[in-house]
Amino acid sequence: MKKVKLLAKIREKTGTRESRRLRGKGFITGEVYGAKEKNYHIFFERREFEKIWREIHGETVIFEIEFNDKKYSTVIKEIQRDVLYGYPIHIDFQILHEKEEITVPVPVILKGEAKGVKSGGILEHFAHQLHIRTIPSKIPSHIEIDISDLDIGESIHVRDIKLEEGIKIEESPDETICTIVGKRVTEVTAQEIIAPEIKEEKGEEKKKKE
User: Largest CB tally within 10 Å, which of 72, 133, 162, 193?
Assistant: First the structure.
């Protein structure tokens, strides 16, 4: 799995006021934690993180975070975003240990054009990420699903996904990843259907007035 470096500093003060002060200066606050590890309160440049985020296209990667002259291999557990503008304001990172299983979110990417879409159907993609549990060396950057043979009325569920041995998906096997539905009635068509009834009502009203 791809590794990226992120420079951070320890937050000497914590609390809402201090977090707002740092965010106002262009920083993201964060926590770094793990089993049998200390909990570290950190902050780092938002501009630097957003640059990395654009480069990895939201895929799962190992963040090698450096602070206090030490490096920690981590994965993102949670991102909190600004409710108005959507940029990240706080991120939790979990420290990885080589032989210790971990649960992480992994993006789902659909590959190919479905047979049903070529026939006029519409692709509905429900699960854009899944949580997998495995050891760090087996964490995939994403889960790719080929939908080329998917026809109208057919779906792909979690149980249909085949991953390397030792990787378990935490979601229910019955959860739907995507499906192809028939073509919907368009707004124009709906108006065309309704229009004669409206005209008829107007005609009846006209008769009453006469």
Answer: 72
Continuous segment of H or E residues that includes residue 89: strand 88-95
* Cα–Cα distances in angstroms (integers) from residue 179 to residues 60, 98, 143, in the given order: 24, 37, 17
Q: How confident is the model at residue 113 (pLDDT cuts 50, 70, 90)?
A: very high
- 3-state secondary structure (DSSP) of residue 127: coil
What pairing do the DSSP bridges indicate for beta strands 9-10 and 70-81? unpaired
β-strands 3-7, 62-67: how paired?
Answer: parallel
Residue with tokens 């590959």: 111
Provide the residue count of the chain.
Answer: 210
Phi, psi of 76 (to 5 degrees): -75, 130
pTM of full prediction above 0.70: yes
CA-CA distances (angstroms) from residue 173 to 59, 135, 148, 160, 176? 23, 21, 21, 8, 8
Beta-bridge partner residues of 30 = 42, 91
E strand or H helix at 189: helix 187-209
Region 30-58: what's the mean pLDDT?
93
Q: What is the pLDDT of residues 130-183, one digit of tens each?
A: 999 999 999 999 999 999 999 999 999 999 999 999 999 999 999 999 999 987
**Cβ pair 180, 123 in contact under 8 A:** yes
